[in-house]
Amino acid sequence: MWSLDWFAAREIARQGMAIRRVGWERGTWLAYFGRLWQVRLPDLSWRVATAEDFAEKDFRARDWTDENYAADICGGRPAYNEAAPTAERGWGDGPEMRPRPVPIFAEEAP
Q1: Would the pTM of this model clear 0.70, i.e. be above it?
Q2: How many Cα atoms are found within 13 Å in the side-chain-facing hemisphere of 66?
Q3: Which of 2, 16, 19, 58 is least buried, going by the fewest C-beta atoms within 10 A?
């Protein structure tokens, strides 16, 4: 999943998946093994994570993911619905990737 906050990413890590920030150097991952947070460095070595590995900006970041570097950030879905809504058909062709329009349009006015 993409665009996770720390709390959501932490739960994924506690289930055995490695997580990373998109803003981190390529190859850097954070994982939870045996009640310890471990970090994988770009040289592919692992070590126990320290306070220097995780700063306040990482805690506040919303770019956490468990996806690999080669993964499609859009997940194969279009950024917006493919077809505009009509009076007969509402917003519904798949997941809505944007909010519904404000409901006071000329055609909806009383």
Answers
A1: no
A2: 16
A3: 16
